[in-house]
Write a structure and sequence with these properties.
- This protein is 6% helix and 33% strand.
- It has helices spanning 83-89, 128-132, 242-247, and strands at 26-32, 34-39, 44-50, 56-64, 92-97, 110-111, 138-139, 143-148, 152-158, 161-166, 176-181, 184-191, 202-207, 213-218, 225-233, 262-267, 298-299.
- It is globular.
- The N and C termini lie far apart (47 Å).
- 40% of the residues are buried.
Length: 302
């Protein structure tokens, strides 16, 4: 397994950190306002794309590992990143088609759990449910669902940060320090499935039931696709302070009590963190996870 990758931020998107698996055919990176979860019974990794986040959009691009420019989307018509379009087309499935399309009996996603001593362990992903010591059901209207039924999920990059507590009905500036932590700043999924003499396999992005396929690429030994899914600020949008950016995750929760404190995470040295986004000045994000047993749990609005 690889050690953590550190590189000074520049005006260009940084090269990605090392993978977890030795020879993956696909690596998927998640950054920005994306809240992840895992459905243990279904072997399904999931992401809730915060679609109520003002001034953001969801970009998805595919490149050959090591190449600067993505080859997909090929045209602007291939992918509409607006939150309105994303919400309208969800749920999405990024999966391996082994010839039977999307089949639940082929789901095999898992979490890489090795404890905090291993920098790539999924346990480095900040758990808001763990901090609040209770379930935090999601508000259905606030997110779009992305599903990942194959591969192993892990922390691709961690950074030093300070965990703080924000008093009820108070701004981020009122937060008080609790302790130093080293949370994940970039989560990932590696897939090492490939085509063979008996089975043709493809990595596919589709919506529910595969009614719309956005891309389909053959999985081959020696070919490594890198997919970046970024819920990031729109170019030239007036950026909020990074601390308020993190608190936007609380907008995903159903009826979060006004009399309950919120948690805030502030990076110690954000400029030292490799930036995979298309906007180098966008604030670093610390993507938390939710329920790692039941997956995305939802309560619809009244």
């Amino acid at each position: 397994m690889s050690s953590e990758h550190e590189q000074q931020r520049t005006d260009e998107p940084a090269p990605p950190p090392p993978t977890l698996l030795d020879k993956p055919t696909v690596t998927i990176y998640f950054d920005g306002l994306i809240y992840t979860a895992f459905n243990q019974r279904r072997s399904l990794y999931q992401g809730a794309i915060h679609t109520k986040a003002e001034g953001h959009h969801l970009t998805v691009n595919v490149r050959h590992r090591g190449e600067k420019e993505p080859f997909w989307p090929r045209t602007p018509a291939d992918w509409n990143p607006s939150h309105e379009a994303i919400k309208g087309r969800a749920p999405f499935w990024l999966y391996v088609d082994s010839g039977r399309k999307l089949q639940e009996d082929e789901f095999s996603a898992r979490l890489y759990r090795r404890g905090l001593s291993d920098p790539q362990s999924i346990q480095h992903v900040l758990s808001l449910e763990g901090l609040h010591a209770r379930r935090l059901p999601l508000l259905d209207e606030a997110f779009a669902e992305f599903n990942f039924p194959h591969g192993v999920a892990y922390s691709a990059l961690n950074a030093d940060a300070e965990l703080k507590r924000v008093p009820p009905q108070s701004p981020a500036s009122a937060a008080t320090p609790l302790r130093r932590i080293r949370p994940c700043t970039l989560s990932a999924v590696d897939i090492d499935m490939t085509s063979d003499a008996d089975t043709e396999r493809h990595i596919v992005l589709a919506n529910e039931n595969g009614d719309i396929e956005f891309f389909r690429e053959r999985l081959e030994t020696g070919v490594h696709y890198e997919i970046r899914i970024l819920n990031e600020p729109i170019h030239h949008h007036n950026q909020d302070k990074p601390e308020n950016h993190f608190l936007q995750f609380y907008e995903l929760f159903k009826d979060f009590p006004a009399d309950e404190s919120r948690f805030l995470v502030e990076l110690i040295d954000p400029d030292s963190i490799p930036n995979l986004r298309s906007e180098p000045d966008s604030p670093p994000c610390i993507p938390p996870n939710g329920n790692l047993i039941e997956g995305l749990t939802v309560e619809e609005s009244d």
